[in-house]
Amino acid sequence: MEHVQTKREIEQTLAAAGLHPRKRFGQHFLIDGNLMRRLVESAEVSPDDLILEVGPGTGGLTDLLILHAGHVLAVEIDRNLATLLEDRFRDVGNVTLLQGDILHTKHLIMPEVADEIRKFFAPREGCVKLVANLPYQSATPLVMNLLVDFPQVRRLCFTVQAEVGERIMAGPNCKAYGPLSIIAQTLCTIETVARIGPQAFWPRPQVDSVMLKMFVRHSPFAEIDEVARFAALVRGAFEHRRKTLRSAFAYVLDESALDSVCGACDAARRPEQVPVAEWLAIFQASL
Predict the structure, then answer these.
(1) Against a cut of 0.70, is the pTM above it?
(2) 8, CA 20 to 30 Å: which among 43, 104, 186, 251?
């Protein structure tokens, strides 16, 4: 069985470098080895895969990933931890470490990461997979960006705070339901791998977490750019979620498309009342 970093080892590693967990970056290190193994297993990591790991921390999950993946692209925002990781994995051939914020802007990921994903040529059955203990503040925009802009990413397996998991899995007529729910469920099959209490992390967060796996299905869209257009339509509607569909769509559609959409659905409802499957039909009517 592969060795997984323990809490004591993480503490010693940080102390030796004069470091400590930083609230600024939402650093809560996963210390449950069994959960880390489940995360890697859920992604079905293979030697043909490029793995994107965001927030590697002290490298506990990275240790497991490099044993199974063709290549690991690890992105760490904390300069001090990035230096520590560079020293630790200096002689490992299948890992690339990048220091910086995975989010270049709210709707764009780090250009260096985008370039690596887009140029990846998958041998045989390989693909790009996100496997990570995600920093809480970056989880929602990162998942959205990967799903909308990168068809190369076929699997996303990650731990995240339970609130974000609820937003991904939410159905209509609840506060958590929104663009993330609709886009994720339109494109992916989603499963809960585990529900995780604060004791699985160090330092302990004040919230529960969840481990999810998302498998991207065969796309329902005819063209790649339609995913981004679909996302823009959904986001635009939810920017006015308290208005009716007719009023909300008036901000994002021209008159002809608005008439077509309103003729194809009950436009007196609010965006949060529309089921996931119907959003695809609304988009098709808007074309």
Answers:
(1) yes
(2) 43
Decide: 226 and 255 in contact? Cβ < 8 Å.
Answer: no
Alpha carbons within 13 angstroms on the beta-carbon side of residue 273 total 11
- Find the CATH number of the domain harbouring 65: 3.40.50.150
Q: Copy the structure tokens of residue 33.
A: 């080895």
pLDDT tens, position by position, 147-160 = 999 999 999 999 99
Phi, psi of 170 (to 5 degrees): -65, 150
Residue that has been written with the tokens 């990846």 in this structure: 120
CA distance 170 to 181: 6
Query: In terms of domains, do 72 and 173 share one?
Result: yes
Under a CB-based contact definition with an 8 Å cutoff, are residues 186 and 230 in contact?
A: yes
- Rounded Cα distance between 143 and 99, Å, is 19
